Amino acid sequence: MRSAPSPSCARRGGRGAAQGRAYDWAVQNATAVAQSFTGYAFPDEEFPERMRYRDQVMADNTAWWLAHTNCRILLASNNGHVAYTSDNPQEFPEPVGAFLRKKLGRKYVSVGLTFNEGSLNALPDFTARQPQKYAVDPAPAGHNEHTLDQVRHRDFALDQRPPRPGPGSTPPAPPVPTACTGPTRIKRPPWAAPTT
User: Fold this and answer.
1) In a 10 Å sphere around its CB, with 0-12 CB exposed, 13-18 middle and 19+ buried, how is residue 120 labelled?
2) Coil, helix or strand at residue 87
3) CA-to-CA distance for 51 and 96, rounded, in angstroms?
4) Residues forming beta bridges with residue 121, ordered by sequence position
5) Distance CA 143, CA 162 (A)
6) What's the distance, CA 1 to chain centroid?
7) What is the pTM of this model?
8) DSSP type of residue 123
9) Percent of the chain with pLDDT over 90
10) pLDDT single digits (tens) 154-173
């Protein structure tokens, strides 16, 4: 992840401070390049560890950016990257969102998007360059998308974070299956991913 500070958010200071910030950003950008090469150096049989490393350094870089600006950050990615837990821990042991949640606590909020039925564009596999259109059948009963499709509004936001513990609070509900589709079409049904 490579970022440059926004002029409206960069910290203020004198010439020495500006030179120090420029140096810090140069080192950080060089670090990000080195991290990319390190990630690609993992052998294919260590794919889960490569993904753990990738997501860890993405979180580290995002947290570094946050610490070196006075801005809020919007990290845009697919649901699987920004979630608090992995929907596929065998291949993707710990997503960026899990690392950011550990670093930032409740200051980190993951926002996911989903839909009940329709179509999506995705790559047929990891080597493809051209996306294809895939049909998505309606979700089965008991899945988030099926339940949310019963709401009369077409578009809406729903905060699914559990309430803070306190007097009168109820324990969190058990996890409910939710669709998770990334940039490639996975060979499993999209409704097979339980999330919390």
Assistant:
1) middle
2) coil
3) 10
4) 133
5) 18
6) 13
7) 0.74
8) B
9) 32
10) 888 887 776 777 787 777 77
The single residue listed with the structure tokens 């019963």 is 150
Q: What angle do CA 109, 189, 196 make, to 5 degrees?
A: 25
Amino acid found at 54? R
pLDDT in tens, 119-138: 888 887 778 888 888 888 88
pLDDT at 64 over 90: yes
Residue with tokens 């690609």: 40
Specify whether the CB–CB gap between 145 and 180 falls below 8 A: no
Using the structure block, give the residue that is written with the tokens 């490393």. 53
Q: Cβ neighbours of residue 25 under 8 Å, at least 6 residues apart?
A: 4, 5, 68
- Give residue 145's identity as a one-letter amino acid code: E
Structure tokens at 6: 């926004």
Residue 26 CB-half CA count within 13 A: 6
Check residue 193 and report its DSSP letter: -
